Amino acid sequence: MDLFGATVAPIVAFFLFGELAILAALLLAFVLARRHRGSTHHYLTLAAFAADVLVFKPLMLSRASSAWGNFPWEGTRILPHLEISVSAALLGAFAILLGFKHRVKKGPRMFLPPKGRLHKRVGLLFIVVYAIALAVGLVIFFETYFK
């Protein structure tokens, strides 16, 4: 498959656009939280996080290990990318746990009381670290396919 002038496997394009879609969903969830749309923020964040951790990350690891062989892969920035990605996943899980711990439900509405500030901070940090992991992944992509 031709992607930005490079020939890549279709699964690689799926990873690239999928991770960008997850970042877009996380940013939209952040905006929804800021606009006091707690329920929508909640479900969108859970869906994006689950898709990333349960679908994209395992498939990427499987693809990378079959394409590159034994870890660590020489000549790549995979170790920093892996460290940042694991940090993002842990931050995301912590933010979700804090969200569940501090949320208040009234009928179909869901909101976060003032004591839930830590959830907001950790959630924002998660989005930032996720974006950094994605940026490092893009660097690896361009170094791999545009030598």
Task: Provide structural commentary.
- This protein is mainly α and 147 residues long.
- Helices cover 75% and strands 7% of the residues.
- The chain is built from four helices and four strands; from the N terminus they run E-E-H-H-H-E-E-H.
- The chain has a two-stranded antiparallel sheet.
Describe how the helices and strands are arranged.
Elements: E1 2-3, E2 6-7, H1 10-34, H2 38-68, H3 78-102, E3 104-106, E4 109-111, H4 117-145
Antiparallel strand pairs: 1-2, 3-4
Helix pairs in contact: 1-2, 1-4, 2-3, 3-4
What is the number of helical segments per DSSP (H or I, 4+ residues)?
A: 4
How much strand?
Answer: 5-15%
Count of β-strands: 4
| C-alpha termini separation | 17 Å
For the largest beta-sheet, the strand count, sense and barrel status come to: 2 strands, antiparallel
**General form:** elongated
The whole-angstrom Rg is 17 Å
Number of domains: 1
Uncertain runs with pLDDT below 50, 5 residues or more? none
pLDDT averaged over residues: 87
- The oligomeric status of these chains comes to single chain
H/E topology pattern: EEHHHEEH
* Strand order, largest beta sheet: 1-2
What is the structural class? mainly alpha
As a percent range, the share of helical residues equals: over 70%
